[in-house]
Amino acid sequence: MAKNATEKSHNSKDLPGLFRATDLEAHGIPRGCLRSMLQKGEVEQVGRGLYRLANLEPNELETVALVASAVPAGIVWLLSALQMHEIGTQSPHQVWIAIDRKARKPSRIPAKVRIVRFSKSMLTYGIQIRSILGVSVKVTNPARTVVDCFRYRNKIGLDVALEALRDAVRTRKATVDQIMRAAEVCRARTVMRRLRGRARAGRPSGGTPRGPPRGRATRPAPAPCRASGRRGSAPRPRAPSPRAGVPPSALTLLMAPTASIAGGVGTVIGPVIGATILPLTSLVLQQVVPYSDLVLYGAIIVIVVMVEPGGVMSILRRSGVISRRTNHRVNDAKEVAN
């Protein structure tokens, strides 16, 4: 009896690094021996129904194998596939897997995963089966992986996709023809061509900049001329105007009270006359002294108020242009209306 138990304990060496309880019978080991192997420390339980050999050497793809054993129908793709094929420098902190769009979402996965759903055509094209620690893992081939990086560039970034393309071609993991054939099947050929062209335009090959094309002489830029009226002269810098820091709404608010003051407060025709004269005065000052028009405008208002507090209306009354009867008639009309 002891001899039989010893033989069963030695049979555990024939097991793969990761296995399930149902895999014991395929290796000629009864399920009853699993408990004894756990007690002896030959096997460790890493998940529900999932076991690992205790003397197994650490592997960077052990997490991928754990997920593949928990989700046998899943396909390892994108960043995890790049890591498996040793393309680029990506080391994802989660396993990227793809499942059927009608499949139930797997639960109790022993690692952090990123799940994406594919149609049936995408689940069958460009799929390889690799063995990791005795677990059969479905993974996209290098050409299909590069195309997926361009298709899902919004998730991983365009720089990662371009890096994967360059590294896959440089290390001969996939040829350009294989990648473009996979892009045509995945309906991403136009996108890849456009993005490759944009990347080449932004990053020209070689360290020296390209010169002008042959047969075409470049014209030198015209030298700046001191004379302002000649063609090709450089524009002279203009000093900033004081009006540049004043918003138009502030000028409008200032124009209304100053028009009443300049025209004559307490009259009806005075503000109308002031609203007609002041904008014309402002335009003339802008043409004559464009950089000091606001200063002179304010000085004119102050002088008018100090010399003639009644405004333009008082000047017109003294000169006899407008009689006082006109103002009285207006006031009488207001009283009748009230």
What does the model show?
The protein is an alpha/beta fold. The chain has three domains: 47 residues, no CATH class; 141 residues, no CATH class; 91 residues, no CATH class. 49% of the residues lie in helices and 11% in strands. It contains 15 helices and eight strands. The strands form two sheets. It has a five-stranded mixed beta sheet with strand order 6-5-4-8-7. Strands 1-3-2 form a three-stranded antiparallel beta sheet. A hairpin with a 2-residue loop joins strand 2 and strand 3. Helix 4 packs antiparallel against helix 6 and helix 11 crosses helix 12. The longest helix is centred in the C-terminal third of the chain and has 20 residues. About 4% of the residues have low confidence.
Task: Explain the layout of strands and helices.
Layout: H1 2-11, E1 18-20, H2 33-40, E2 43-47, E3 50-53, H3 62-70, E4 75-76, H4 78-85, E5 95-100, E6 113-118, H5 120-124, E7 127-132, E8 135-140, H6 142-151, H7 153-156, H8 158-170, H9 176-185, H10 189-202, H11 248-263, H12 269-288, H13 293-307, H14 312-319, H15 324-337
Parallel strand pairs: 4-8, 5-6
Antiparallel strand pairs: 1-3, 2-3, 4-5, 7-8
Helix pairs in contact: 4-6, 6-8, 6-9, 11-12, 12-13
